């Protein structure tokens, strides 16, 4: 069971492994919080990733040799087995990890975020249905306008 918590990732080293659409969404979210983002992917398939400022893009094959230097890792490749290997390593080494191809093999989930200067609300469906989380977030937004 996941405990909901907010963490400060400003200027913290975050790694996103993958260069597709889901990786782009994760990078975009992390970049809103001024984290120090590195992206490793053999190929950047989602060109919008290059448009996000202030990220270090390394187009190369992933290797776990430097994972310990990151506070948060996002395994966002299209290879489920690789994502699980990354998640297992991170969990064993007390590194926060989000695995986009699993609902449980991770220790961090991203949710639908609603925030302004007065509040921050995160909606999570326990990894079951992200679309429902976003729908509920939007309903909450309409209620508190």
TrEMBL record:
Q: Which GO terms describe its biological process?
A: siroheme biosynthetic process
**Known Pfam families for this protein?**
NAD_binding_7
The entry lists its GO molecular-function terms as:
ferrochelatase activity; precorrin-2 dehydrogenase activity
Q: In which pathway does it act?
A: Porphyrin-containing compound metabolism; siroheme biosynthesis; sirohydrochlorin from precorrin-2: step 1/1
Write down the superkingdom of origin. Bacteria
**For this protein, what is the EC number?**
1.3.1.76
Keywords of this entry: NAD, Oxidoreductase, Porphyrin biosynthesis
The catalytic activity, as recorded, is: precorrin-2 + NAD(+) = sirohydrochlorin + NADH + 2 H(+)
Which InterPro entries does the record associate with it?
A: Met8-like, NAD(P)-bd_dom_sf, Sirohaem_synthase_N
Record protein name field: precorrin-2 dehydrogenase
Q: Which organism encodes this protein?
A: Sebaldella termitidis (strain ATCC 33386 / NCTC 11300)
């Amino acid at each position: 069971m996941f405990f909901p918590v907010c963490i400060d990732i400003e200027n913290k080293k975050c790694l996103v492994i993958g260069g597709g659409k889901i990786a782009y969404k994760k990078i975009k979210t992390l970049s809103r919080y001024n984290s120090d983002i590195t992206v490793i992917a053999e190929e950047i398939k989602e060109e919008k990733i290059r448009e996000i400022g202030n990220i270090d893009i390394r187009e190369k094959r992933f290797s776990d040799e430097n994972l310990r230097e990151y506070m948060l890792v996002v395994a966002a490749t299209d290879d489920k087995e690789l994502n699980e290997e990354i998640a297992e390593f991170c969990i064993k080494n007390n590194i926060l990890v989000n695995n986009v191809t699993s609902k449980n093999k991770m220790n961090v989930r991203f949710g639908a975020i609603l925030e302004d200067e007065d509040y921050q609300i995160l909606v999570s469906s326990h990894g079951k249905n992200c679309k429902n989380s976003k729908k509920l977030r939007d309903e909450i937004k309409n209620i508190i306008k």
